[in-house]
Amino acid sequence: MITQKSLQNIESWFENHVQKFRSSDKGYTQNIELKKDHTFRVCEEITRLGKSLDLSMNDLRLAKTIALLHDVGRFEQYDRYRTFADYKSEDHAQLGIKVINQENVLKGIDPSTKRVIICAISYHNRAHLPINESERCLFFAKLLRDADKLDILYVVTEYYQNSVQHSNQSLELELPDTPHISDEVYQKLISGKIVSSQHVQSLNDFKLLQMAWVYDVNFLITYRLIKERKYLEKIRDSFPKSERVKKAFAKVQSYLDSKA
Ligand SMILES: [Fe+2]
């Protein structure tokens, strides 16, 4: 169980924690702020999803706690490695769990609730969810993954629309912006499968990976929000026009339509 008081304590811990990451470097501060703002929006998204699923007040607080802590490793990651690319640094979910444990962020919370929090965070950036976990853990992991994707789609689509003026290499995971689309990435998307990050070689591949997230959505409301906010169209419009992009878009769009 998560009381209002324990949620407030975790919120103030989070604020204090982020405050520690300061620098006179503008780019550094911008990336720290980016993850902080992302975190707050994921808290809003997860609450929106949770309410639409009629979760209890306790479970809404639990969902918010999970969202608030899910990317805590990002600050440490950026500070140490100056990148958000896990493959160039380390797994930011595991790094976050280390921080949570070291700083005893979950003190006073009962062990079974703690397990759910740690479990949801540790699986939030995996390609696939494990099967040998409790139903409650998997439920919150799914909720977090949907809320996280909704906000990443918001961030990247805003970014793609404005990146000509304000490019940020960290958001592009330092990938080359070449016209190239990898066969492997394209084939996966066309066959209705999620794209694994190890096949991503260019920014275009990364955009296709984000489009293919529609195959990895867990709740009806999430499909509806993706559709309503026109995220797929916005990603498509950020590509140079090509036959492959047209086909890829048609594929994910028709999948979304069949679900939403
Ligand atoms: Fe996130």
What does this structure look like?
The chain has 260 residues and is an all-alpha fold. It folds into 2 domains: 4-148, Hypothetical protein af1432 (Orthogonal Bundle); 175-259, no CATH class. Helices cover 64% and strands 0% of the residues. It has 12 helices and no strands. It has helices spanning 4-19, 26-52, 57-69, 73-81, 92-102, 111-122, 135-162, 183-190, 203-211, 220-228, 231-237, 243-259. Helix 2 (26-52) packs antiparallel against helix 3 (57-69) and helix 9 runs antiparallel to helix 11 (231-237). It is globular and about 55 Å long. The mean pLDDT is 94. The site of fe (ii) ion has 5 residues, from helix 2.
Write the layout of secondary structure elements.
Blueprint: H1 4-19, H2 26-52, H3 57-69, H4 73-81, H5 92-102, H6 111-122, H7 135-162, H8 183-190, H9 203-211, H10 220-228, H11 231-237, H12 243-259
Helix pairs in contact: 1-3, 2-3, 2-4, 2-7, 3-6, 4-5, 6-7, 9-11
The chain binds fe (ii) ion (FE2).
The site of fe (ii) ion has 5 residues, from α2.
User: How would you state the average pLDDT, rounded?
Assistant: 94
Query: Can you tell me the CATH architecture of the largest domain?
Result: Orthogonal Bundle
The fold-level CATH name of the largest domain is: Hypothetical protein af1432
Tally of individual domains: 2
Instruction: Compute the separation of the termini in Å.
Output: 33 Å
Q: Proportion of β residues?
A: under 5%
Radius of gyration: 18 Å
Low-confidence stretches: none
Bound molecules: fe (ii) ion
The helix-and-strand class reads: mainly alpha
